[in-house]
Design goal:
Elements (H helix, E strand, L loop, with lengths): L17 H8 L10 E8 L4 E10 L2 E11 L9
Antiparallel strand pairs: 1-2, 2-3
Length: about 80
């Protein structure tokens, strides 16, 4: 991830295209055609991960949320 994890809260991602997100955050392990992308922001010693989820509609970010996830990151809609 190109940006500092703490700066994610200050970045306005809503309305950005996938290309702009890749430029801002890197490509991560997201499958380009998917409408739900995730970026792991951090992990504690228990294995709980802080994950940024981005939902795309009409090729732009419609919603974003940050959730704590334990174990495998779900690829279902969390919105």
């Amino acid at each position: 991830m190109k940006n500092n994890i703490n700066s994610i809260h200050q970045i306005s991602l809503i309305g950005k295209t996938k290309e702009e997100i890749i430029e801002e955050l890197g490509d991560g392990f997201n499958f380009y055609p998917d409408n739900l992308w995730d970026y792991e922001l951090g992990k504690n010693w228990w294995g709980t991960k802080k994950v940024l989820f981005l939902l795309f509609e009409d090729k732009k970010v419609k919603k974003k949320t940050i959730r704590k996830v334990y174990g495998k990151v779900p690829k279902i809609s969390i919105f």
